[in-house]
Amino acid sequence: YTVETAPNGRAALxxxxxxxxxxxxxxxxxxxMCMEPGFDGLDTYRExxxxxxxxxxxxxxxxxxxxxxxxxxxxxxxxFLAKPYTIEELGxxxxxxxxxPR
Length: 102
Known about the structure:
The chain is of the alpha/beta class. It has helices spanning 9-17, 41-51, 66-74, 87-99; strands at 29-32, 57-61, 80-82. It contains four helices and three strands, in the order αβαβαβα.
């Protein structure tokens, strides 16, 4: 896989905005639910799908924030991984995320 990283949600949006405007910006986005104060994974994913409807996404967090995770999943985000997770769990989530129709 080719991977690009962003230090927070707003930087991720700027990275997405550098991609051609049609279709998904990336094959798969992996978002931590807890990022910068006041702009978490749900806020980021909400902005992503406004720009790129159908963008595939995996969510992860070390905290149990089920209501916000469920809101992101209703917007189209895929699997949620609770930290700590194994490399096998991450690999399975990526494989499943990439095979999910947009």
